[in-house]
Amino acid sequence: MNKIDSSQIVRAAEKLNKNIFTRNDALSFLQQVKQEKNQAERLISWLIIFNIIKPYNIANECARLYTEYLDLQDKFFHDGDPMKLIGEDEEFIIMADTQRSNAWFSKISHQIGLTQDDIKDASYQIPRVLATLTKTDPFYKYTQGYDRYAFITYALGLFFSTQSSLPSEVAESFSYALTKKILRFVDINKILGDMDETQAEFISIDKGIAKIFPDIYKELQKMNHGSFYFALKWQLILFADEHTLSDTFLIWDSIFLRQNDYDSFRADLIMAHLSQIQIDQDVIMIEKIQKYKEWDTIKLINYAVQRYEKKSRTFETKHYIFILYVLLLIVALIYFYFNGSGINFSDL
Questions:
Q1: Which CA distances in Å does 130 have to 51, 158, 309, 344?
Q2: What domain of life (predicted)?
Q3: Phi-psi category of 182—alpha, beta or left, where left has phi over 0 and alpha has psi -120 to 50?
Q4: Same CATH topology for 6-186 and 194-312?
Q5: What is the Cβ-side half-sphere exposure of residue 29, based on CA atoms within 13 angstroms?
Q6: What is the third-level CATH fold of 194-312?
């Protein structure tokens, strides 16, 4: 690996980060639904929101991620080829997936201004990130889809490294740290491993579609289709294949902001996507949804957030009503207890 003094990363972080100094700063950044956002500050906000770095002394914390990643390389691979040290089956799947994704990554990177020279090391750095994950914990044994997270977080890291003339290994170290946390958050193995629970979730989503978008639901039912046939992929890779990279960043901002209640917010994002689907004659609905790419992402996120906040307000109202009911019940029980005992309140 191309090794540098970590002080260079400290200086780069201090130069690129002008606004993110606390967790609240990171939360405020993620709440902004707009395209013009500082990518270095997005990177730092994600690192903070996933508790990868502490919001004090951010520059040194960023440098720490790089040195820790170097230590892992020395520990697991000793300058050898990582792909030769993880087992043939896993090596084959990782290389097949990443090679297949290289063309996709080249296209989406170009959309956000990264050059071919910027991404030239991705072909071996992304497999190395995934190989390192598999050596870290059995949880990260490679599953198809993991590469999407590594590529997307790597692209975000490249904004940091290229703007500071740092080697791409710095972006690689950020990708490793973020991919590790995001994979825990998404838990693809749970989604695919417990299909009864997954199917039950999509049945619930289908009921929501029938209520909110009855015409779409009827079209899907004509071919005996449901949300499982398009939204499972959305769930597995957080809608990444549906959008440009800049739009994916924006959607992930909204998801990571609500990671503690993502099961609920995910349903809102699914409904938000369907809100932009028009019914066309002689077009099979499932195919239209699967192939549609003309999303208005700002409008989509605002739609999902409004639905989510409305549910939250409804829940809070019901919660307060329940508390009031319990308090009234306690008062009534106390009243009847004292009256039934012949005790006069004025004697107390």
A1: 21, 17, 36, 74
A2: Eukaryota
A3: alpha
A4: no
A5: 27
A6: Cyclin A; domain 1 (1.10.472)
CATH of domain 6-186: 1.10.8
Tokens matching residue 12? 């780069």
The tokens of 39 are what? 């990518």
What pLDDT, on the 0 to 100 scale, is given for residue 291? 95
Instruction: Evaluate if pTM is beyond 0.70.
Output: yes
Opening angle at CA 284, ends 281 and 288, nearest 5: 95
pLDDT over 60 (residue 89): yes
C-alpha to C-alpha distances, 139 to 12, 136, 187, 254, nearest whole angstrom: 33, 9, 9, 26
Amino acid identity of 168? S
CB within 8 A of 266, min separation 6: which ones?
A: 235, 255
Own/partner pairs for 74-77, CB < 8 Å, 24+ apart?
76/132, 76/135, 77/131
Dist CA 6 CA 66 (whole Å): 7
Q: Give yes or no for a contact between 85 and 131, defined as CB atoms under 8 angstroms apart.
A: yes
pLDDT at 346: 53
For the chain, percent of residues with pLDDT exceeding 70: 89
pLDDT in tens, 283-335: 899 999 999 999 999 999 999 999 999 987 554 444 445 555 556 666 667 76
Q: Where are the alpha helices (DSSP H) in the chain?
A: 6-16, 23-31, 39-49, 58-76, 88-111, 122-136, 146-163, 168-186, 188-193, 195-212, 214-222, 228-236, 245-257, 262-274, 285-291, 297-340
Lookup result for tokens 């040290």 = 85
In the chain, where the domains are located = 6-186, 194-312
Rounded to an integer, what distance in angstroms lies between the CA atom of residue 282 and that of residue 236? 30
The alpha carbons of the chain give a radius of gyration, in whole angstroms, of 25
- What span, in angstroms and rounded, lies between the C-alpha atoms of 241 and 238? 8
Mean pLDDT score across all residues of the chain: 90
